[in-house]
Fold these 3 entries.
Entry 1:
Amino acid sequence: MSVDNGVQTLEIELASLAEDLTSPGWHECVLCYVNRMIAAFGCDGTLRWTRRWRDRQAPRATGLERRAGRVGAYCDCELFLNGWDVAVEVVPDEYRGPGGGAGCLGVRTGTTQPCLVWVRINRAAGW
């Protein structure tokens, strides 16, 4: 095997691994996915993970980024700073991960609505 073939093989394997690591789970809602991606890879100041989820789970939801902006979310982490928080009281124990963390409760295919793990932050009440 030549060096070029080895490099090409490695690039293919890395691309496959990246796809596996960053693919949305089956029926994983947008917020659970974005939260998981931020925890693993951070926020780059854009809606990168939100767009990736949309492209794979709900490609017809062309207004998703605009709707995020309406709640003050112009990057992925702002979804959780300005838009939604965990509604721990609605998460059954069987969905809690190690350390009491919550897992996605799932959504139907194509919906951009978050699962019941998430609740909208009511900024009007506090400001």
Entry 2:
Amino acid sequence: MRNRNGRREDRAGAQQNPATKNNGPKGKKTSRNGVYLFSLTIFLIGLAAVLAAFWGNLSVPAIIVGIVVGFVLASSVRIAPQWERVVVLRLGKFNRIAGPGLYFLIPIVEHAAAHVDQRIITTPFTAEEALTADLVPLDIDAVLFWLVWNPKDACVEVEDYSSAIWWAAQTALRDAIGRINLAEVATRREQLDNEIKEILDAKTRTWGITVVSVEIRDIAIPKELQDAMSKEAQAERERNARLLLAEIEKDISEMFVDAAAVYDQNDKAMQLRTMNLIYESVKEKGGLVIAPSAFGEAFNNIKGFGGE
């Protein structure tokens, strides 16, 4: 999108949340309905137990007590999916990593600060109008594959690790592009992927995050430069073709010189060459061929054809 001055605004602007940005296909995601259903069941069990205890003298205070007990039980007894880890704080300090499966919390004293997904996460990111070393603006789309291997550091060392790694990836991409020329961008794509991965690994290692890979999807070159690059490539191909043709002509001329030297030193070689030319002419046209008198003399000078 362009502003009033005609300049393109960065997609990572304040009006767009990079953590939720996704240009890829919308696939089927795993569900946490089982976790919510388990909490609801624990809540209902606690509520039902209190109501059963006060069944003979059921009142509003008894219902309130049942709701409180059910809420406390649902907050204390929880489950986490196989791919999830829970960061538990006790009185504001890190205590442990819980999950997967069943885990317990002490009401009020402990709480789940974060639920960390430890599967590989795919994050698209872009660098619009990233300047190369020769000051050419490029629009680049890439994909980042990463995972959280240390839930504690991911929650304690950085406020929002999803947004942090998105911004870090975009910055690393711009830095890598700024160190090479336009002509090197397409030919060094794999090297760029590895370079960005190394930069991100060094930056996110203290966050408990590992970058699996970085893959550049598309590089958009300005239209005004596409024609110039196309003409340059066409001129380069024409130059190579002319050089190849010149080398071939040089080789042929050298072979002609060598053949002439052989014919000059050996008359029979010249006569055999003459006979070969007559044979090829007869083979192509068929029938009798009217040949110059020099051809006849070539036969007469060879033994078996009137020669000595």
Entry 3:
Amino acid sequence: MPHFETTDGTALAYEDYGTGAPVVFVAGWSLHSDMWEYQVPYFLDHGYRCVLLDRRGHGRSDRPTTGYDVDTRADDLAALLEKLDLTEATLVGHSGGGGEIVRYLARHGSDRVAGVALLAAALPMLRRTDDNPEGIPAEFCAATLAQLRIDRPKWFADRAQGYFATHLGNAVSQAIIDHEIRRCLVTAPHAALAVQQELFHTDHRADVAALPVPALIVHGTADQSIPLETTSRHTARLAPENTFKEYPTAGHGLYITHATQLNADLREFIER
């Protein structure tokens, strides 16, 4: 697996497959590029180039002490696009990856980007404030960080069924659930804590309102990880040019449970 070095000397792992129009996949919090195993073969079969990044502290990338703020993570994404000299790319981000994408556009512009897809994204702002009354209380974030410090594997295991919304009939084997938890646990503990805290506190409302390219916004109505009303419905009201799709039976793990529908929607968006 190739690596490239960022400006602060951190070596980041990436994958680059195929030819054609580039689709850049940015993983969600605590996940890495392998999460896209149900997307990459589909897009390769349809003639696309698939580029995937393991953010710092995640997957096969270095685990530095610092650099987990959203600006640095967005700059890491920029460094990858520049290294590969990608143009007319579609950036696809899940959960926390959505924040890195919109901050990338705010900091680096859209010269290399044709459009973005924000999947169950932690946007535009998670925490509750006076001007964001539907947000999540600060106490909830503090409790989450405390639980992750005490027993991170149990935290993921306790939320696995809800992550895939299996109570709505989504067919997900125990093997897939266990495998996805193992992927999450590859992430450096200090990186998981730092990025989780950043996701909660970062305000992306200005980034979303100024999006310079078309956006596809997809979210499951049964998402227990990133509440739909606080996030994607608000994002759809802010983003200048967007297509908003709600999946009625999807949870946060829609990239697995609803892969067929999601892949078709992504391809339609890219081609349009």
